[in-house]
Give the backbone structure.
Amino acid sequence: MNLEQVLQETYGFSAFRPGQREVIEGVLDGKDVIALLPTGMGKSLCYQFPARFLPGSVLIISPLLSLMQDQVAQLKKLGEKSVVAINSFLKQGAREEVWRTLGTYRYIFISPEMLAQPFVRQQLARIQISLLVMDEAHCISQWGFDFRPDYLRIGDMLPHLGNPQVLALTATATKKVVADIRKYLHIPEAFLYEHPIDRKNIVYDIKKFDSHKDKTDWLLHYTDRYRGPGIVYAGTRKKAEELAALMIEKGESAAFYHGGMEQQDRIFVQQQFQNGELEWVCSTNAFGMGVHIPDIRHVIHYQLPTSIEGYVQEVGRAGRDGNPSLATLMYAEGDEALMESLLMDELPTEFEIRAIHDAENRQLLVDQGIVRETALRVGAYWLSQMTIEKTIEQIRKLQNEKWWQGRKVSELVTGEGCVRSYIAQSFDQTIQGKPSNCCCFEGIDYTTFETGTKSSPQVRVEGWQARLARLLPD
Amino acid sequence: MLFSELILGIMKSIDGQRTVSSPYHLLKGKKSGQTIQDVGYFNLHAYFALFPKLDKALYDQEIAALENDGFLVKGTDMIQLTDKSRTVFSMQSCLDGWKYRGKETLFFKRLSLIVQTFSHATHKIRRFDPVQTEEDVQRWVKRYLSMISFREAGVAESFKQELFASMIAVQLPDAGKQVVMNRLSGFQVSGLTWLQIATSTGLKPLDVQLSGVETLHGWMREIERGNYPLLLPLLENITQQSAMTESAVHTKRLFEQGLSLEEIAVRRTLKTSTIEDHFVEMAINDPSFDFRPFIPVPLYEQIISTSKLTQSKRLRDIKEHLPEAGYFQIRLALATQGGAK
């Protein structure tokens, strides 16, 4: 089979992106594959391409609803009709139809929670699954920055699904995490493709400040000086809103984006950013998925990210077109406190564990605001695996792990070495050939990012008739 | 109409008789016995379910503002309007929440995906990121577009003509029409967030949302009444067929089969109080509802005259005067009266 020819005919690309060919060949050879591909390197092609040649269905496990919806939307945009997403949004009436015709779908997307339901497993056991794709596979490891206990159960389900071939995809995984993926998915012999984490066209900058006011002033100066498109990541929803308001006040073309907004407003901000009507989006880490803009020039972290892995993913949204892009990490003393509280927020406290353990109706605890949703998810999992005392000990271990995860971020800003090398080392990789414009410790040539005169586009309300005429021109 | 004026308008009808949070439940379209009953008692049909996703914190902010501005007495749980609030007149409106029940958003979702498709089709673009992500909306629109053969010559033009003509015919200020149109998107034209529309018109997001809902209600009524063959199908399953909740309809059916209130409760494994709520709902919605199986005629007349005499629809006030009447009997009597209006 001539893979390039199929690529050209089906997708209209003349060449594979780095890594895609290796992974696709591995899958087509019938091997289990673990693929470490940086964000934006075309991960989804790695299962879409083989799916054309495999019998039966491809089952894709995806941890985030938004991610799943985005992938389904992208597939449909390519004209693929044989795709279904099984998640909590699927309505009761539609569900029965889906179960009846399950085997006819080429792509079946599912959330780990759904997969855990015995009824759903029975349905999946009835059909032929030729490939199981695990997206964001690092979530299976407690050493990963985004551990999801639900993922651990997937390994136990494989026999029920007829032990299909496995493709584990992730953008970020250390050696420890890869070892966990092998262990929990029972694929010790899997072929590992590891793409260098480093992106040569991204320049890393770190700016230190004495106060928050200095930070804000500097940011406003920056967004005035450089042209977008750019993303400013803030630690909280409130901060994202505040920063956007300040920028708008200064006449910048900016908006905020976070998970607390209604869906339609979120889509509108994405549209505006994609259409070049907005230069800056101030957001929480909710922004990025479903945003396919190749020419993002700036990614600014106004606050410390909670992990190196998350940082690399967010920074990786810049410069998909291969042109130089600037990643700026802003730091003021005391910023660690917010980062640490965000980190610890993901785990249940001892009080919460005891409450979950003692409760008859656990959901009620969440409804009454006694236990947080995520705390319940994590706590309930461990309580189902071990005694309460062991669970408390386990959570302590995880807290410790989180603490180290935070330490690594702190060391990124307090360290005195090359940022690029530091990041690569965090993934047990070494840098081969530094670009001339590397990072703040090697000296940055900022002129690369200066563009001529700047005229900010603006989002404006139009009169209804003018608007309608623009939407539907003659 | 501003959101605060909307709240004051509702409060005027229930001043001194309901709590400060009851307009919140009404606007959310809460399907509890109390809220649905109040719609009938106080004739609040226009306001029901105007904001199904209303955030309680935002509502509380509006209430605090009304208190601070002296429209509402501070710190009481029961609504107490001040003299100042009587100077505010609510305007005539096109709102019809009882009829649409928040489904204007479904109408709008269909419309926005259709407009987006036409907009791209004009530029010969077949693939784009749909502005509506819900599968049922997408399926509905696909079916609709193929039904009207949207690619055929002249169809897009006719659709556009209907949009213009129907919108012009709506008897509402341009401000609201502007809100609705700026929430549409198309080829290289993005939709605007509530906040963006609000900021550039000097209003608050809730005010903008309200004028959007009002315009949609007015527009949908125009589409229903006028001659807009391409737009009319967008109203499919939008208007409430029965004004009652599904559960109440179920109860009604069993009652018509001859089951008593208690038997229905047993059959449906629901609390008697829930079934009572259903009967109150029936009474509100059906002018011919016969209360006599539940209330002796003399008692019914006493309840009605007591309510008129005390100028109150509060159950406790009436019960004080008529200890022999049950709460359910009082509610039912008041409900039939509301319906008779």
